[in-house]
Amino acid sequence: MHQFDLKNKTAVITGGAQGFGLDIAKKFLNSGSKVFIWDIDEKELLKATKDINNTNLNFNIVDVSNFDQVKKTVSEISSNNKIDILINNAGITGPTAELWNYNVKDWNSILDINLNGTFYCCKLIVPHMIKNNYGRIINIASVAGKDGNANASAYSSAKAGVIGLTKSLGKELAKYDIAVNAITPAGANTKLLDQMSKEHVQWMLSKVPRGRFLEIKELTSLVCWLASEENSFSTAAVFDISGGRSTY
Ligand SMILES: NC(=O)c1ccc[n+]([C@@H]2O[C@H](COP(=O)([O-])OP(=O)(O)OC[C@H]3O[C@@H](n4cnc5c(N)ncnc54)[C@H](O)[C@@H]3O)[C@@H](O)[C@H]2O)c1
Fold first, then answer.
1. H or E segment at 182?
2. Which of 102, 120, 155, 248 is catalytic?
3. Cβ contacts of residue 127 below 8 Å, gap of 6+?
4. Could you give the CA distance from residue 114 to residue 182 in angstroms, rounded to a whole number?
5. Any idea what the CATH number is for the domain that residue 53 is in?
6. Alpha-carbon span 23 to 220, nearest angstrom
7. What residues have CB less than 8 Å from 90, skipping those under 6 apart?
């Protein structure tokens, strides 16, 4: 497997205790990076750090939808590290329901975690990247944000917001050696799928011309290139990894 050089880099990966984020963390560690995983799931965080057993791995219990918690953690980490890479990956889908039946509390927390969380992390980490004239930010959006999935209006709106945020911030930072990109994956077999109805997950699969779900390691490979110095030009862009579903 091709290795990227992430030596002497420090990465923050939100929602990294399991699923996509954990696989990205493992690959970053193997590529020489120091990694901070931020997550709310203490049990999974402890399990992940025990399994990986690497002194370059650190974790923080942080709710990305809580601005004060993100602020405190950024200030702790940045006093001893430059933050070179930010992977905004923490996310929830919320339940499957039509918009007019969508619970307001669920709607707000989906927007808070997926979109506001990405805003808070970028807002607080970008000034450090500007100071160092270096940064790679990757926002994990979804095909739902491009296509708009029926029965997932909150998630689709939040991920569409993440795509808009990426395009604006990428342009604002283009004069620095800072790249901001989004990725729009199709379904992959992680715990995230448990939040939706079985019928909705089957429907997601039926939409993929490749005829299968995305494998986690396929997403990680794309993230690694975007997070490396080798991506010195692409910014404010949306990278599709949907097996042919969203061909735009
Ligand atoms: N798996 C898929 O089918 C799929 C498809 C497209 C996009 N995505 C996106 O990929 C990202 C990762 O998803 P995954 O499939 O690995 O899911 P996952 O459920 O396996 O992992 C998500 C992690 O985020 C953490 N998290 C949730 N809320 C948080 C918060 N407020 N603060 C900090 N951490 C929080 C969870 O504890 C969990 O460890 C998400 O943004 C998701 O929307 C996933």
1. strand 178-185
2. 155
3. none
4. 13
5. 3.40.50.720
6. 7
7. 14, 15, 21, 38, 39, 64, 113, 114, 117
Q: Are strands 85-88 and 57-61 parallel, antiparallel or unpaired?
A: unpaired
Q: Is 176 designated active site? A: no
Q: Is 147 among the domain residues?
A: yes
Q: Whose CA is nearest to atom 20 of ligand 1?
A: 19
Overall domain count for the chain: 1
Domain range for 64: 10-241
Name the residue of 147, 155, 190, 207 to mutate for ligand 1: max ligand atoms within 8 A of Cβ: 190
Claim: this prediction has a pTM higher than 0.85: yes
Going by pLDDT thresholds of 50, 70 and 90, the confidence category of residue 43 is: very high
Q: What is the dihedral of CA 97, 188, 171, 109, to 10 degrees?
A: 40
How many other C-beta atoms lie within 10 A of the C-beta of residue 75? 10
Per-residue pLDDT of 140-176, as tens digits, reads 999 999 999 999 999 999 999 999 999 999 999 999 9
Task: Specify whether the CB–CB gap between 143 and 243 falls below 8 A.
Answer: no
Residue 183 maps to a domain: yes
Establish if 4 belongs to a structural domain.
no
Instruction: Tell me, yes or no, whether 246 lies in a domain.
Output: no
User: What sign has the CA pseudo-torsion 203, 160, 118, 129?
Assistant: positive
